[in-house]
Design brief:
Blueprint lengths: L4 H8 L12 H8 L11 H11 L13 H4 L31 H20 L6 E10 L6 H9 L6 E12 L2 E11 L5 H9 L5 E11 L1
Helix pairs in contact: 1-3
Length: 215
């Protein structure tokens, strides 16, 4: 049975995993239902999740949890609704049921629009942020990882804050840089960030968004 990529894309837009905050059997059952790597342009969040879960292939049998949550994304099934739509001023009927075209009706319409716009403008805007686990792989075990991290941290973008980091072994004496960052969603493009990191090609082989969680 194949996975419903459209539903999965929507689900992973604000989550790192199918269920919870670590890889589980729910991720495994969905991963196995995807026959090939998803199109990153059509399903960017699924593609990011797929590449991350792929790195756990050898550990699939030992991952915790149940596959039940993942089964909701198989075939044509849609995941249970998790959010109740909020009622807000967007539902206000600005023009009521007035069909009159006389001057008084137009004046009332204009007053309603002005009052609505003034009320919307007065509302404080919430800044959406995400915490991201970012991984950078070097060319080999001789790469200067201190210099690699220095180059990565030298990247400055509005809304980008670098956090803690560590070196994670990946085999054959090679270690990758795993670094945490906080981004303002409207200001920082992770694709653009990866392009900037790739410019340090003397040290960087590749980079990947390993996990992302909304704050």
């Amino acid at each position: 049975m194949s996975a419903n990529l459209a539903n999965l894309e929507s689900h992973l837009a604000t989550r790192s995993y199918v269920e919870g905050y670590t890889p589980s059997q729910a991720d495994v059952v969905v991963f196995k239902a995807i026959s090939s790597a998803p199109d990153a342009s059509a399903y960017p969040h699924v593609s990011r999740w797929f590449n991350h879960i792929k790195s756990y292939t050898a550990e699939f049998d030992s991952l915790p949890g149940s596959s039940q949550a993942g089964e909701a994304f198989l075939g044509g099934a849609a995941p249970a609704a998790e959010k109740k739509e909020e009622e807000d001023d967007d539902d206000v009927d600005l023009f009521g049921s007035d069909d009159e075209e006389d001057a008084e009706a137009e004046r009332i319409k204009a007053e309603r629009v002005a009052a609505y716009n003034a009320k919307k403008a007065a509302k404080p805007k919430t800044v959406a942020k995400s915490v991201v686990t970012f991984e950078v792989k070097p060319w080999d075990d001789e790469t200067d990882m201190a210099k690699l991290e220095e180059c990565v941290r030298s990247i400055e973008m509005p809304g980008l804050v670098w956090g803690a980091s560590k070196l994670v072994p990946i085999g054959y004496g090679i270690r990758k840089l795993q670094i945490t960052l906080v981004v303002e969603d409207e200001l920082v493009s992770l694709d653009e960030l990866q392009e900037k990191v790739a410019e340090f090609d003397d040290y960087v082989q590749s980079s990947d968004v390993a996990a992302m969680q909304k704050l």
